[in-house]
Amino acid sequence: MRIKVMKNVLWIGLSLLLLLTACGGPEYKVQGDVVVRSQWTFSFGTVCDTLQGADPATFVPVTDWLGHDSQRVYFKAQLVPGIDVATLKAVRYPLFSDKHDYYYEARPLHVADLPSFEIVKWLDDDFWAKDARLVYYDTLSIAGVDLATFELVGKWFARDKNHVYMKGMSLADADPASFEPMKGAMFYYRDKSHVWHFDRLLADADPSTFELVGEQYCRDKSHVWCSIDDKMLMGADPATFEVIGKSNYCRDKSHVWFRSDLLADVDYATFVVDYDSFAHDKFGSFTADRRDTDDSADAFSAGTKK
Q1: pLDDT tens digits, 249-295
Q2: What pTM was estimated for this model as a whole?
Q3: Three-state SS sequence of 215-233
Q4: What number of other Cβ atoms are within 10 A of residue 240's Cβ?
Q5: Per residue, what are the HEC states of the chain?
Q6: pLDDT tens digits for 77-117?
Q7: Which of 74, 142, 212, 271 sits at a 20 to 30 Å CA gap from 93?
């Protein structure tokens, strides 16, 4: 059965790949007296956007997302005014430049020192960059950075000797010297005194005992958190806390939760997870954090009164 499912998945993936290849990617085309950018979509098939004002006789595609005629520059199908056509250069999607500046999705970076500008690291379509005077995260320029000690820490974070930056914004109260991403916990970071989930400070978290539990939860010596809902599990006992299999249910010595929602009417001794977000006890079944029928809730109530 498993082999059959895997074959079906592979066949669907191959079919989609062949379909996308046949339909082609985005491209610029001259159609009569206009220039269009065509792109195939799952929802609407091939969609064409007209480049307003483009001159078909002089239009040149630089990439499939950047093009120009003798006087105008277009990002995708958007006219970008004020760009010097003669010095236009595609860096990497969605960044391009001319003799005046660099542009991210057609928005100017206002680079302080063009000759020294360089990309420090690409992160998918966003990036960290610097020149002799400033550091940049996409179009956000960061003044006051100590360039001699500037370095990246994890994917979205950077630091110098004075500050920690999250996507270009200074992370308040962070200690640069001890700041680090947590091993095995992609979106968690800590310093000697604090723990963050993305850029949100986890109040009262103890960095020395903080750890990930499964893929959706974390704990320290005193607390448990659900990272999906970004909530603390009130009353949870960290020492006995565990995720039940690979489901969305978890428990400690006395309680059961669906993610961060406490199952108040559960019979702890007979609670069993069936699959993912489905479970049951001797009084009935659960879907997520709710009993499936009023009858099972009545049965629970009757059973607890005996």
Answers
A1: 999 999 999 999 999 999 999 999 999 999 999 999 999 999 997 55
A2: 0.75
A3: CCEEECCCCEEECCCCEEC
A4: 11
A5: CHHHHHHHHHHHHHHHHHHHHHHCCCEEEEECCEEEEEEEECCCEEEEEECCCCCCCCCEECCCCEEECCCCEEECCEEECCCCHHHCEEEECCEEECCCCEEECCEECCCCCHHHCEEEEEECCEEEEECCCCEEECCEEECCCCCCCCEEECCCEEECCCCEEECCEECCCCCCCCCEEECCEEEEEECCCCEEECCEECCCCCCCCCEEECCCEEECCCCEEECCCCEECCCCCCCCCEECCCCCEEECCCCEEECCEECCCCCHHHCEEEECCEEEECCEEEECCEECCHHHHHHHHHHHHC
A6: 999 999 999 999 999 999 999 999 999 999 999 999 999 99
A7: 142
Look up residue 153 and give its amino acid. Answer: V
In the block, residue with structure tokens 């992609």: 186
Q: Compute the distance between CA of residue 194 and CA of residue 214 in angstroms, rounded to an integer.
A: 21
Take residue 87 and report the two structure tokens written for it: 């010095």
